[in-house]
Amino acid sequence: MSTTDKVIISCAVTGSVHTPSMSPYLPLTPDQITEQAIDAANAGAAILHLHARDPIDGRPTPDPKVFDQFVPRIKAATNAVINITTGGSTRMTMEERLAYPIQAQPEMCSINMGSMNFSIHPAARKIQEWIHPWEKPYIEGMEDMIFRNTFKDIKYILQTLGDGFGTKFEFECYDVGHLYSLAHFMDEGLIKGPVFIQSIYGILGGIGADPENLSIMRTTADRLFGRENYRFSVLGAGRHQMPLLTMAAIMGGNVRVGLEDSLFIGKGQLAHSCADQVRKIRRILEELSMEIATPEEARIMLGLKGKDAVNF
């Protein structure tokens, strides 16, 4: 099997959406993020998508000093591609969101391809006891929050990190319109291939997690970019994770797991780690006779600058 036919597994380790009261297994401290990221890489994740958390109470933080407590350790212990968020959280300014990516100059960064309503506020109704005072207003407050990424914002990120440091991007597309925005930036010459599209399903405010929508996103990307010119990956939020990822792989796509995207490993069963989810999707894929891409194969497939060309 050629490298291009292999499946890249990405793992989003902690994110900025879930809170400590939702799962005791959500990694929050630098040590926990380090351990779960390394375990996920050892389980088969070629790409590690990383956010930072305040070590005291687990709230999302953009502080480069916190990132520095785990990112270099993960790099030293694995060969995985380290992918740093530029999304941060809906509460962060652009300056905060880019503080660590500008310092770290990583191989990859994520980038949300549009401003959008992005919320899990209904989840607050399911929590009976909150561990920290910030959590409930944080989740409930999402009902009146917008994730901002205007065309000017996206252009700034692409130029600052892409042109400035040779960073490639995980283009997070939460709806069909985001694919057209991505095509616009390609037409403007601001994006160079190969393009890695992370299509996302099941977030309130974005496209739903219906299997038909996965087909719509795939065929739309084919029409806009030509299948040979991009890599397709799928993120299914919550309970939609494994079914949509299996469908995506059968359609020639790549997959993303991790406790940022879903806290569960099965119906009503919390995942004890990100590695649990990596192992599960890897088993499914291998039983379907698919091969998993190594980090070096993923670097070739995505045209990355290499592990040694970063600043951490």
UniProtKB/TrEMBL annotation:
Source taxon at top rank: Bacteria
KW Zinc (keyword) present: yes
Gene3D superfamilies: Aldolase class I
Cofactor: Zn(2+)
Assigned keywords, A-Z: Metal-binding, Transferase, Zinc
InterPro entries in UniProt: Aldolase_TIM, BKACE
Pfam family, one: BKACE
An annotated Gene Ontology molecular function: metal ion binding
Protein name in the entry: 3-keto-5-aminohexanoate cleavage protein
Native source organism of the sequence: Marinomonas profundimaris
